[in-house]
UniProtKB/TrEMBL annotation:
SUPFAM superfamilies: P-loop containing nucleoside triphosphate hydrolases. PANTHER family: DNA POLYMERASE III SUBUNIT DELTA, REPLICATION FACTOR C / DNA POLYMERASE III GAMMA-TAU SUBUNIT. It comes from the Bacteria. The gene is holB. It comes from Gracilibacillus xinjiangensis. Keywords: DNA replication, DNA-directed DNA polymerase, Ligase, Nucleotidyltransferase, Transferase. This is DNA polymerase III subunit delta'. Its EC number is 2.7.7.7. The keyword Ligase applies.
């Protein structure tokens, strides 16, 4: 969880500037729709906005983090900040009805009220229509913050009543740092950022034994292509294909192979900062001695062609057999 606008500016500079300008000018919108992938900071933004609204000691737009209001918002216990999350698979009508009832009461310490609806796209039709009526009669002291990964699933009439702010995916370096801060090794963090810009997806992938085994198989295949060519067809039949059963899995295996050969190019160019397979430097050195830059360039083109064939529904095992034969030439 990002706890300050200073940190949020580094992660989401455009959206942060728009919201903090509104806070500074005391022109906070009655409703915001924060749209972005998992891990891009939607919940942190909503909480920061709430703290900036209620904090009595804020410095321009930055909440103090130490006052009673800031601490209660952090702990989820502020009486005038209401957070709605899906009840099971959806946000139901009675949840919105209860929220409306709460808002008929005067605020306990001021007339300001904030409500945050997480996964707003999961509202049932009746719940969405109830919320719409609520949004159509905005109070100057009420701020709604809707969070979603799929804004197009919301009623167009709801979207039209909100200021829509799109959060950008984390850049690779930001995501890599967050993964390392979460306890991942530099090597694991680096490789995961090549496959997703989504923090939650990257963390899930870091625990995925299938993905870990896929990485090992790629390294084993490359070693065989260098040292045990005669055993490659058996390896493809007995280990590669059983692991990469689905087309999307096979595409991911080829993506890993692309990353490996790009790493060999970076090794040739003495550019270690760009290498993804950080824990395989010795094997990358061996590969760079075995294949020239010209060889590697051809192999990358061959892998890309294999990916295209998979999309054209060419038989998967045939695609991989042809690929390995071409790399061995």
């Amino acid at each position: 969880m990002v706890n300050s606008w200073e940190d949020m500016f580094r992660q989401q500079p455009v959206v942060s500037k728009m919201i903090t300008n509104s806070i500074r000018k005391n022109r906070i919108s009655h409703a915001y729709l924060l749209h972005g992938d998992k891990g891009t900071g939607k919940s942190s933004l909503a909480q920061l906005l709430a703290k900036s609204i209620f904090c009595k000691n804020r410095n321009q737009f930055e909440p103090c983090q130490e006052c009673v209001d800031c601490k209660r918002i952090n702990s989820g216990n502020h009486p005038d900040v209401h957070v709605i999350t899906p009840d099971g698979a959806s946000i139901k009508t009675d949840q919105i009805a209860h929220l409306k009832k709460e808002f008929t009461y005067t605020g306990l310490e001021s007339n300001k009220k904030v409500y945050i609806i997480e996964h707003a796209d999961k509202m049932t039709d009746n719940a969405a229509n109830r919320l719409l009526k609520f949004l159509e009669e905005p109070s100057s002291e009420t701020t709604a913050v809707l969070l979603t990964e799929n804004s197009q699933s919301l009623l167009a009439t709801i979207r039209s009543r909100c200021q829509i702010l799109s959060l950008q995916p984390l850049n690779p370096k930001q995501l890599e740092k967050k993964l390392i801060d979460s306890g991942l090794t530099d090597a694991n963090a680096r490789i995961l950022t090549t496959f997703t810009r989504n923090l939650d997806e990257a963390l899930d992938k870091s625990k995925d034994t299938w993905f870990a085994q896929a990485r090992k198989l790629v390294v084993q295949l490359v070693e065989m292509l260098q040292n045990n060519r005669n055993e490659v067809p058996i390896f493809v039949h007995t280990q590669w294909m059983p692991h990469f059963k689905e087309k999307n899995q096979l595409q991911e295996g080829l993506d890993l192979l692309l990353v490996w050969f790009r790493d060999v190019i970076h090794y040739h160019m003495d550019d270690p900062s760009s290498i993804v397979f950080l824990h395989q430097m010795e094997k990358l050195e061996q590969a760079s001695m075995y294949w020239s830059m010209q060889d590697i360039t051809k192999h990358l083109q061959t892998i890309m062609e294999a990916k295209r064939k998979l999309e054209q529904n060419v038989h998967p095992q045939l695609v991989i057999e042809q690929l390995t034969l071409q790399i061995q030439r």
